[in-house]
Write a structure and sequence with these properties.
The chain has helices spanning 10-21, 55-74, 96-99, 114-120, 142-155, 200-206, 249-256, 312-321, 329-332, 373-389, 408-415, and strands at residues 3-6, 28-32, 47-49, 86-90, 108-111, 130-134, 137-139, 159-162, 164-171, 173-179, 184-189, 191-194, 214-224, 236-239, 273-277, 284-288, 338-347, 354-357, 363-367. The chain is an alpha/beta fold. It has an eight-stranded mixed beta sheet with strand order 5-6-4-14-15-16-13-17. Strands 8-2-1-12-19-18 form a six-stranded mixed beta sheet, sandwiched between helices. A three-stranded antiparallel beta sheet has the order 9-10-11, with no helix packed on it. α1 (10-21) runs parallel beside α5 (142-155), α1 (10-21) crosses α10 (373-389) and α2 crosses α10 (373-389). It is globular, with a radius of gyration of 22 Å.
Length: 423
């Protein structure tokens, strides 16, 4: 059986890895015209957590963390998996609203006094009234995890094909037209797996399928923390409250005069997040804020993305400083060494992945891993590989596939909640 996996991001690599290593498939092709993990996977925040507002996603995430922990153990932690957890911080006096979203199996500590919060998380703002520590969470090097799986895939006989899939037809077997830039090649396959990330919708259309996904461009920054503002042992920390950005009256008046910037003077959504980057001896930090909600078409090269906002570094620093006041000096004196980058959140309306049969016989999808691709890739790839191979699937498999849209009870439940676990 010839299996073609379209897309060499971390989800495609993980799927190919499990097909070859766990299910012993000897004829697997990983097809992409880019270098592996050089597109959306290269823009990952590299965090993981089992905190989700639904037990299906919690179980899925727990399985992925289990698989990563096993790989970390077997490789002397070559991809630098940590276990500092997540901190959810709020100025609300009552934490029940947050706690009620946590599923069974999510282990937490709750800190509800100023003294305890300050002792445990000294960088947090003094106005934080509740800090919830999600214990099963941390960060990884997604690039190293992907490289490990790719190496083992190659050792198991998996093949890499350099080319962009431009058309797919079927005549008994699937015929994939690929273009490497210098020449065109025809590839035959018995099974097609769509792991094309932001281009999953385009690949699906080649097979007559309309996937319910959209792409939203989100940005991050990383910078050299020359002031040592962020403690190196601080967990990934998230502000659960909406906020204003602390403009001066003059700045606020100038922004209000511009229709495209006026929104910056109001209350912005929750979700600013920060963590140290590079381990205990590193000096860099990462900041993110997935406040964009506008759909856009993915560009072939991320460096040409017109949606990247030159004001984002100041916006996210101002937003994060509301949670971490030690960042305030960077508003007046921005970091000298920093990286500003972005990537697409390919997502369904409910922010759940699509993993499993895609429609036509012997076609599958592993995608819509918006903002959680690195952390869920192992479970997503293994689930897709298991589906292809017809072995026993976890109980949540149907909920994560296209079949869920036929489950009226589940879809009504998902549509009734505003919390989609988006970060």
């Amino acid at each position: 059986m010839e299996v073609a996996v379209i897309g060499a991001g971390i989800a495609g690599i993980a799927t190919a890895y499990y097909l070859c290593t766990e299910y012993r498939k000897s004829s697997v092709m990983l097809i992409d015209y880019r270098h592996p993990m050089s597109y959306t996977s290269a823009q990952s925040g590299d965090n993981f957590r089992n905190w989700w507002p639904h037990p299906t996603m919690t179980a899925f995430s727990n399985d992925s963390i289990d698989l990563m922990e096993r790989l970390a153990h077997d490789t002397n932690n070559v991809f630098n998996m940590t276990d500092r957890g997540y901190v959810l911080a709020t100025r609300q006096a009552n934490a029940d609203t947050v706690l009620n979203t946590l599923q069974s199996g999510v282990d937490v500590d709750v800190f509800s006094s100023a003294d305890k919060i300050h002792r445990r998380f000294p960088a947090l703002s003094g106005d934080i009234r509740n800090a919830i520590h999600i214990k099963r969470g941390g960060d990884i090097s997604g690039q190293q995890l992907g490289a490990l799986m790719l190496e083992r895939y190659r050792e198991a006989g998996g093949k890499r094909v350099n080319g962009e899939v431009t058309a797919i037809s079927s005549n008994g077997a699937f015929i994939l037209q690929t273009n490497s830039g210098s020449d065109s090649t025809v590839i035959k396959a018995d099974v097609v797996i769509n792991a094309a990330g932001p281009f999953a919708g385009e690949v699906a259309k080649m097979l007559g399928v309309d996937l319910p996904v959209r792409n939203v461009y989100q940005q991050k920054i990383a910078f050299d923390d020359r002031l040592a503002a962020i403690p190196r042992d601080m967990p990934f920390s998230i502000d659960l409250d909406g906020k204003s950005l602390g403009w001066s009256d003059e700045e606020c008046a100038l922004l209000a005069e511009d229709p495209q910037l006026k929104w910056l003077t109001g209350t912005l959504p929750a979700g600013t997040h920060c963590r140290p980057d590079g381990g205990d001896r590193g000096t860099w930090v990462k900041l993110g804020w997935a406040y964009n909600a506008t759909e856009s078409q993915p560009q072939r090269e991320l460096g040409n993305e017109a949606a990247i906002d030159p004001q984002f570094p100041e916006i996210v620093i101002r937003g994060a400083a509301a949670l971490l006041p030690s960042l305030l000096p960077y508003i007046e004196s921005p970091p000298a060494r920093f990286a500003h980058y972005g990537g697409y959140y390919t997502m369904t309306e409910e922010n759940w992945p699509l993993i499993g049969p895609m429609g036509p016989a012997d076609t599958y999808v592993v995608g819509a891993l918006s903002g959680f691709g690195s952390m869920s890739a192992c479970a997503a790839g293994r689930l897709c590989a298991a589906t292809v191979c017809g072995v026993q699937l976890p109980s949540y498999a149907d909920d994560l596939g296209i079949a869920r849209y036929e489950n009226e009870r589940l879809m009504k439940e998902l549509q009734s909640t505003e919390d989609k676990g988006l970060l």
